[in-house]
Amino acid sequence: MSYSREELADNKDLAIILLLEDKSPMQKISKENYVRVSDDQIKAHKYGFGLLAGERSKYGDALAEIIDIDLKYSLDGTLWKDYKAEIQAAAPGLLKKLVIHKTINSGFHFLYRCQFIEGNKKLAKRRDDGPSKTKVLIETRGEGGYVVVPPSKGYEVMNNSMLDLPEISVQEREVLFSCAKIFNETDDSELRTELASDRRMYNRQATRHEDNNPFEEYNKRGDVLRLLTDHGWSVAKEKGTKKLLKRPGETSNNYGADLDIIDGIYMFHVYTSSTQFQVDKTYSPSQIFTMLECDDDWTIAARKLRKDGYIKTPGKRRDIADVEFIQRPDNEIEATLKEARITSSTDVPPMYELIGINDTLVLSRGNVVGLSGAVKAGKSAIINLLLSKSINAKCEGFPTINVKENRGGKPVVHIDTEQSKSKHKENIMKWILPRTGFKETPPFFHSYNFRSYTVQQSREMLVWLLAKLYKEHGGIHMVLIDGISEFVRSPNDEEGCFTLVKLLMELSSQYDTGIVVVIHTNPTYENTTKERGHLGSELQRKAESMLGIVNDVANPKISIMNARWLRNGDKVDFGEIHYSFDSELMRHEQVGIQGEADEFTRLKAISQKIRNNTSITEARQMIVRGANVTTTKAKSMINNMKDLGLIEIQNNYIFRIDLTPIADGDNDNPGVEEEKGSAPF
Length: 681
Description:
- By secondary structure, the protein is α+β, with helices and mostly antiparallel strands.
- Strand 5 (99-102) and strand 6 (108-114) form a beta hairpin.
- Helix 12 crosses helix 13 (421-436), helix 15 (494-510) packs parallel to helix 16 and helix 19 (616-627) packs across helix 20 (631-643).
- The relative contact order is 0.07.
- The model is unreliable at 188-192, 204-211, 315-325, 524-528 and 660-680 (pLDDT under 50).
- This is DNA primase/polymerase bifunctional N-terminal domain-containing protein.
């Protein structure tokens, strides 16, 4: 299918130009010098025709724009199919609206009008060994650009007609752009530019320690994906090393940015214009941290990163292949490697479950489990329960939490680094022993108070104690350390935290026991479910499981334990354990998982704390802070509120539906902020 010359001449909404045999324009096409060719010239022209994009092909407020997909540079030949698939997944039906032309080189053009367009832009490139270093795969022709169109030789109409050029929304245009950028291989020059910018900002606004730039260290070691997800971004898809992200509040399948590794550093390239980031700009990890955590203040960012340990470790770095690095004789290293090797015939003992919760393996011998929560969240109740059940596995209460029976009375080790000795003893006598049936401390229960000792002393005593108990009793049933942060100088001491977690893993393996460690969540972090500092991050990577405890928003007297990470199970299957203090039994007891009525009450209480005309992103952040839940959970809660008729969502803003009068003090004015320092809920 094609267009006739008469049809082009009759259409006065399109800026048609005449092309020479080499496809170059016969006339000047700048905005100031452009003069529309006459109908007779169009009808008599024997070579090709072009369409000017931008204002000269304007209809109403919508301007013409073209996306050019050049398949001759697609190495695997799948670019066209893959690009269409991404568009269809992100916006079903959008492809059918577009005008599509096939080019003489078997490429394709998307033609449309939109109320917002830009100049010519390169959307996707790939690296090339030739002089240009890159080849353009997908680009646009906007204001000031043009493309060849039918009835030019070799050009065909594949879908719809440009004589009635359709208008698409700004959001649909963004879908076309973001899907194209999935196929971009970011130019290394962007990396060099942004890293050079980091150094300039550091030298200009922070301190002058050229050899210890915290921005450079954060670029190398910072967990930028965790930072982005904590601020509402979510990973929608992975394509090789590239992670495709949705912007905060995005409910469609449209991607807003990508995160890709270039020369060992994650670089963040933004497609969308709906965030605080600049569209079509690439950001380094330090730039992301400065914008999201420090309100774009580089001086504050430098101070925070230094405090968090992003400085170079002093001393000469050794190459692993350096002979001086190897300290042991060859025969010892060879013997150790032989012991460490795993083959199909290696005799490995089966996994031995120590703690199971809701029929899910949480802790096995030779492993470490982390238990985290804020102050007063209810950690002590679970700590005391685990100790009671490690002493007597058949003790009453919490039927879905099971600790393996301690046959043979192997040592149970408890170390408290935070409580005073008087409070420590009170916990044993009032909360731990009564549930077990023991009136006095059994000989195999070894409870120690390490509060007054240094980090070095605490580590020495722990290692010495476990070695002694293992030698004397032939094994250790379980170890629980309440306050693992006291075994390191700072939770942000990266080297110290790595060494400590490595030590815990070695001890659990060496003595074939399970170790439970308790760590606080970060009180200064927006998402209060994040474990403190590098220590929390290291535990997340190495622990067999990470369990978290929060207070129920609807009823703060109830604590909720859930799984934040399970190596041997599914968080959905694990569910939640709700518990509270039973005044009749004088101890904490499980109250089960919330039913539908309780969940409605909880969501209703939360929805009534959200101000009218609040953006979805802001509401989600309020729920994360106030309800002590993850970003994903907060998003799910908002969707459930909508399904239950508690809120309405219009244009990504929330409007509350009042089923009952709101409590005094609730603020319906979106322009009035909550009192500084007050909790959202």
